[in-house]
Amino acid sequence: MQELPIPVPDIEASGCRCDGGQPKNFARPCLLLLLAEAPAHGYELLERLRPFGFDLNDPASVYKTLRQLEGEGHVTSEWELSTRGPARRVYALTDDGRDMLDAWARTLARNREILGMFLDRVGAATGRDPIVMEGLESAGGSQRPGLSRARQGGVR
After folding, report:
1. CA 55, CA 52: separation in Å to the nearest integer?
2. Is 49 within 8 Å of 22 (Cβ atoms)?
3. What is the pLDDT of residues 87-97, one digit of tens each?
4. Among 81, 99, 79, which residue's Cα sits nearest to residue 89?
């Protein structure tokens, strides 16, 4: 199965030699979520995936993932005729897809807890906050996901 491209932070800029990126297959729950919010055609889904950190220079990988989700019964699609352009395939979430989205949400919530514990322990072991908060506060996020209440207050 081909995975969607995952952006890797610039090693020079971050000072990290680690791979980074989203969890394996993260595009799948993202697509399920987007379709739970509203049915959509592929190009719209490409645009709506960007806030999740995907740099999609190869749209074929998204369409392949959508076909796989459809083959698994998580997504349906229908051709939508247009008076201004070619027909487009519109994707929608099935009940099985909603169940899969719920399962992904539980898994990701547990992973967030584990990552929060890891970051708390790194902070305690090094005396430094391991999180780079570029733009999070200015984007309206006041809490740091996955961190304990003490660490959210900036305890160093």
Report:
1. 9
2. no
3. 999 999 999 99
4. 79
Q: What pLDDT, on the 0 to 100 scale, is given for residue 10? A: 44
Sequence spans of domains, the chain: 11-152
* CATH code of the domain made up of 11-152: 1.10.10.10
Provide the token pair at 35. Answer: 């379709």
pTM: 0.71
> Which tokens hold the place of 84?
């201004």
Query: Residues 34, 40: contact at Cβ < 8 Å?
Result: yes
Q: Phi and psi for 22 in degrees, rounded to 5?
A: -80, 165
With CA atoms as reference, report the closest residue to 21 among 47, 48, 54.
54
For residue 76, give the H/E element and its range: strand 75-80
Please give the helix or strand (H or E) that residue 41 lies within, else none. strand 40-41
CA distance 143 to 152: 6
